[in-house]
Amino acid sequence: MGTSWDNVLPEELQRLCRDQQKRVQSEDPVSGVWDAPASSVWKVWYDASNIAYGVVLEADGAVMEDQSWLRHAGDKRHINVAGLDAVIKGLTLATHWGLTELTVCTDSQTVHGWLES
């Protein structure tokens, strides 16, 4: 193996990559339009910790998308503020799906209070 992105891969590894690409193209069961019905009931679930944020978009009980982000090293903001940041990330993700109505699911009374005010 090389030490640079520009190094040529060994022939055996190139062959394995080509084989895998062919298998994915011919056998991958994931296909078709990835879309949820317009009548779906959408929820955004979120969580935050000292090191990361996580968001899940759910439609009619099925996970449609999830994402996570690491918090910056040394981020000292209170966990409730981090929770609010996670909600904002979830709402941003929802806008990419074209959503205009959804339920935010939270286990934080503080974040709930902030969202209700």
What is the topology?
Blueprint: H1 11-27, E1 42-48, E2 52-59, E3 62-70, H2 79-96, E4 103-105, H3 109-116
Low-confidence stretches: none
Percent of residues in beta strands? 15-25%
Biggest sheet, in brief? 4 strands, mixed
Radius of gyration: 20 Å
Biggest sheet strand line-up: 3-2-1-4
Number of beta strands: 4
- The tally of helices reads 3
Percentage of helical residues? 25-40%
Shape: flat
Description:
The longest helix is centred in the last third of the chain and has 18 residues, at about 80-95. The chain has helices at about 10-25, 80-95, 110-115; strands spanning about 40-50, 50-60, 60-70, 105. The protein is built from three helices and four strands, in the order H-E-E-E-H-E-H. Strands 3-2-1-4 form a four-stranded mixed sheet, covered by helices on one side. The protein has about 120 residues and is an alpha+beta fold. A hairpin with a 3-residue loop joins strand 1 and strand 2. Helices cover about 35% and strands about 25% of the residues.
Provide a brief overview of the structure:
With 117 residues, the protein is of the alpha+beta class. The protein is 37% helix and 23% strand. The chain has three helices and four strands.
List key phrases describing it.
single chain, 117 residues, alpha+beta, 4-stranded mixed beta sheet, 3 helices, 37% helix, flat
